[in-house]
User: Fold these one by one.
Assistant:
Number 1:
Amino acid sequence: MTTTNLEFKTEVKQLLDLMIHSLYSHKEIFLRELISNASDAIDRARYESLTNNNIMEGDGDWKIKITPDKNAGTLSVSDNGLGMTKDEIIEALGTIARSGTKEFMEALQSKEVKDNPELIGQFGVGFYSSFMVADRVTVLSRKAGMKGQAGVKWESSADGFYTVEDVEKEKKGTDVILHLKKDEKKYLEEWEIRSVVKRYSDYIEHPVAMDVEREKDSKLQKGEKVKIREEEILNSQKAIWLKDKSGIKDEEYNEFYKHISHDFTDPAKVIHFRAEGTSEFTALLYIPSRMPVDIYYKDYKMGPTLYVKRVQIMDHCEQLIPRYLRFIKGVVDSSDLPLNVSREILQSNRQVEIINKNITKKVLDMLSDMKKNEFEKYLTFYKEFGRVLKEGVHFDFSRKEAIADLLLFQSTGKPEDSFTSLQEYVDAMKKDQEDIYYITGTSFEEVRKSPYIEAFKEKGYEVLIMLDEVDDFVVGGLEYRGKKFKSVIKGDISLDKEKDAEKKKAEKKYKALIEMIKDRLKNEVKDVRLSGRLKETACCLVGDEGDLDPQMEKLFKAMGQNIPETKRILEINPTHPIFTAMNRMFEKEQKSAVLDEYITLLYDQALLLEGSKPKDPAAFASAVTRLMVKDAEKSVS
Ligand code: ADP
C-alpha cells in the first residue's frame, strides 16, 4: 500500500496556522463541528439509500460514536454515514471549497474573528478546528455501498502536508481520530465530553453514543458492586422544531440557530409554528441579527433546510421562501411531500407553493408586529435587511402594500437618526399636497442641502430621503394609500397654482433668452426651462419623469451594463437676480462673449450641484477667478 504525500492549498495552511496559533477560547467547538459533519454524512447516506439499496449495507442503525482512549491519548468521532472515497477526501480535507476565499482569509485576520473563533464555523471549515486541540489527526473513511474496496486513511500534523493511503475498512462511514495535545487531555474525560455534547449537539437527530463505566449490583455476588461498560446516548435527539414551544428555552433556540446558520451571534427573532389544513408542516425560522457575510455573493445559498417527516431532504431549499426574505434561516418539516422529492419537482409543487405563501405571510406579519411593538428592534433589523426586504415591493405584486408598510425612510423634515414610515408620512401630508415626494442621493447631508428641495421646504412639504440605489426602482411603480410617488429630481414640478401663472408670464418674457441658451447648450442638455422647484439657487439639472434615476444609472454602470446616455434638462430660477441681469445683457447685445461665458458657468454650476464635475474644470476655475478679481477690484476702487 502506498502512501501519498500531499500539500495543503495555501488558504488551508493559513487557516491552520491561525487556528493553532491565534485562537484560544471556545476550543470545545471542535466537537460540535465533528458531530455536525458526522450527522450530515448520515443524513446524506439516508437520503441516498432511498434510491440506492446498496448504501445501507444492512446497517441502518444510524449512530455517531465518541470514543475516548486514555491510554492512546486519542478521541475518536465515528459515524456510519456516507463516507468518502480517496478523491473526495482529498477534495474535502485539502482545500476550502467555497468561493470568496480571499474575503474569507481577510476576515480571518480580523480581530473580530480572533476574539470569536465560533465565526470559523460560518465559513464551512469546521473540520480544521480539530487542530486547535490535536497535534495529529487521522481520518479513516469508507464510502457506503463500496464494501471491500475504497477504504482510505488521511493523516496530518498540520505542518502544511497530509498523507493519504488505501486501507481496509470494514464498516462504512468515517472515523475521525484526534491525537490530543498534551494540555488538551481534558477532552478524554467523560463529564467534559458529556457537557460539550449536551451544550452544542443535544438536538442532533441521530444518537451520539459513548461507552461509559457504571457501577452496578453484581448478579453473581449479592451485595457486591461491579464495574461494567455500557453504551449511553448523550443527546436527547429531539428535533427541536417538533417539541412543544412552551418547553423550549431561548438558549435552546439560539444554540440550534447557531448550528444551522454557522452564525455566532444570537438571532434577532425566532418564528416557530405549525400549519395544519391544506398543508401540514412545522417551521422553525430565524431572522439573524446581522447580514450573513455571503449574502451578496453569487453562490449564496438561500432557504431553510427541508425535512420530510424528520428526514433531511435538502439544505437550502430556495423554493420555500421568496427571494426578498433570503436572509431567513431555519428548518421546514413537511408531512405532505414525498421523501424522494427532487429540486426539479419542488419547482412546480403545489404543497411547496402553499408552504412558501404561508411562511411569507407569517414573516411579514411578525415584522409588522415588531415594527408596531418593538420599534427599536425593528429599526436595527431594518437597517440590516431593509435593502433586501424592499425588493419585495417590486417583485411580489400581491403583497406590495404589506411590504410598503414595512418600509422606513429618513426625511428632510426630521433629524438624521429619525425614520418615518409611509403611513406616518401620508398622515403628516399638508392638505394641498397631492403626491409623496422623494429625493434620491448618496448621503443624508448632501440631500438635505440640495437645491432640489428648496420649494418643498418653503411649502412645508416633507421629502423622503432615499439613499439605496434600488430605491427609485422600488417606489417607481408604487402607489401608497392612493398617493403616487414623485421624485423631486425628475419632471416638471409645480407646487403652486398661483405661481404657475407667474411662471407663464416669465416664460413669455424670457422666451428669446431661453431659446438662445438652449441653442448654446444643445449638445449638453435636451431642454432648458424655467423651474418650479428652485428658490435660492440659480439653476439645476433634472430628468424627465420616465428617465433613469442618476443613482440607478450609477448602479447599472457599476454592474457593467451598457446604458444609453440620457441628456438632462437645465432648469433656471426665473426669480434669481443673475437671470434678470443676463436678460438685460441679452436685450442690449444678442451676441456677447460675456453672456456665452455666463451660460457655460451656469451649466457648470448645475453639474456641480448634482455631484458631477464641470465639463472643463480648468476653464471653470479660471472663469471664477477672473470674476473674483473683477469683484475685488470693484470693492476697493
Ligand atoms: P463543512 O462541513 O462546513 O463543509 P468541513 O471542513 O467541516 O466543512 O468539512 C469539509 C467536507 O468534508 C464536508 O463538506 C464533507 O464533504 C467532508 N466531511 C467532513 N466530515 C465528514 C464525515 N464525517 N463524513 C463524510 N464526509 C465528511
Number 2:
Amino acid sequence: MVKQKLELVRNWQEEKELLVLGFFEKDGEVSGTELGQRIFNNLTLGSANLRKDFQGKFGQKSLIYKVSPKRILFVGLGKAKDFNPEARREISSQVACYVRNLGIKSYSVEVFGDFSDLLCPSAVKTQVESQAAGLYRFESYKKSDKNIEEIKILVSFVTPEIEKAFCEGEIVAKNLYFVRDLINEPASKMTPAMLAETAKEVAQQSGRKIQVKILDNWELKEMGANLIAAVGRAGFHPPYLITLEYKPENHQNAKPYVLVGKGICFDSGGLDIKTESSMAGMHTDMAGGAAAIGALKTIAELDLPLWIVGLVPTAENLIAEGSYKPGDIIKAYNGKTIEIGNTDAEGRLILFDAMAYAKEKFNPYLMIDIATLTGACKVALGEHYAGLLGSDRKFLKKIKEAGEESGDKVWELPLDKKYAEEIGSEVADLKNIGSHWAGAITAACFLQEAIGKEQPWLHLDIAGAGRMEIIGQATGFGLRLFVQFFLNEIK
Ligand code: BES
Ligand code: ZN
Ligand code: ZN
C-alpha cells in the first residue's frame, strides 16, 4: 500500500515543515515560479552565499532553515529546455528520497516547472507517480523507521483536468505498489494458488467491473494445455491459468486487447537446474503476470472505455519425481509438438499455451505478452530498457511512444525469420531453445508460433527491466507502460 497521503493544494502557507521549490538554471541565474522566485529573492537579499552556491543545476539541493515553514528546500531542475518527462521523474523521486532521509514526514512540493501557463496535467500525473515510485520499499517483513506520511502537491491553479491527472497519478502509484509487493513476496507464500487468489480478489474488489476465471491443473490437461501442465508438474503447488476480463459497456473496441503475463512463481530451472547466483531472485519470475493483473486492476479503476483481457499462466518450475525432462516431446494447446531442449526455458512454454488459448478464445485486436523471459535480454539491454519484439509496425510505434511517456522504456530487437530457423526440431514441430546466440529473439520467434504471423502482437522481455539488481527488488515494469498505452488508445 502507498503509505503517503497525497493531496492537491493551492496554499503553501499552510505548510509547517518543509516547502520544496524548483528552479531552472538560466544564464547564470536561477529561474523559479512566481512563488519560488519571490522566496528566493527575499532569502538571497541577506545571503549572497546562497545566490552563489545554488545555481539550479539539475539535482542540486540547498536546504534552508526558517521559522514558518521550518525549512525550505531549493531544488535545481537544470536547463528548462532539457527538462523532459524523464528529468521530472528523476527529480521527483530524488527529492522524495532526500526528504525521507532527513527524517521529515510531510512536505509540500511545487509541480516542478509550473510556470502557470505551462502547467500541464500530465506533469502532475508524472510527478505524483514518480515520487511514490521512488519511495517504495518492500516492507511486509521489515518496517523502516523513516517514512513520508504526507505529500502536498502545490499548484498555482486547479482545473478539472489537473484534478483528473492527479487522481490518475494516485491510482497508478497505488497499483504500482500493489504490483511490486506481489512480485517481491517470497515464492513459498506467493504460490500459483496465491496468485490466482489475488486475481480473484482483484475481480471481487472491482465491483463487477472485472470477471475472473481460473482453470486448474485438471482442466488444463483436459483442454490440452499440456505445456502449462508439464512445467507445473513438479511443483508442490499445482499450476493454473488465470483470466481477468474487463469489458465495460462503453468499450470502443470490437475485439479485445489481450495481455498475457508469465507467472512462474519460482524458477529453479527444473532438471536443467540453475546455478546459485542465477537462481537468486527467481521468486520474481512472475513479474509479467503481476504486471498484467495490476494493469487490469488499474484500468478498471480508471474506468477506461476499452475491452481488455489479462491472462496469466502460473506454475512453479521445480524438481521432483514428476519433473518434465529434456528430450520430452509435448503437444501444445494448438496441437503443435514441442521438443524440450532445456527445462529452464519454461516461460515460453507456459506462455505458448496461454497465447494459443487467448488467440482461439478472444480473437484479439492486439495481443501483448510480458515476461521475465531470457537472461540474453538482460545481457543485451541491462535494466533500463525492456526488449520489444512484435509483428505490427503501428503498435510497435505506439508502445515505444507510451514507453517514453511513462518511463517504462522499450527497445526493439529484430523479429527476423532467419532467427526462427534455430527453433526447428528433428523430432517435433518446434524446440524450446535456439543456439547460444540471440536468445531473446529466438524466444520471441518461439512465442510467435503459438499465434501465427497474422495476429497483431507485441512481446516484452522484462528479465532485466523487471528487477533492480542492487536491491534485488521489483520495478513493476509494465504497469505504467500499459496504462499509458491504453490511455493513448482511447479515441
Ligand atoms: N526466468 C528466466 C530468465 C531470467 C533471467 C529472468 C535473468 C530474470 C533474470 C528464464 O526462465 C530462463 O531461465 N531462461 C533461460 C533460457 C535458456 C535456457 C534458453 C536463460 O535465459 O538462460
Ligand atoms: Zn527458466
Ligand atoms: Zn523463468
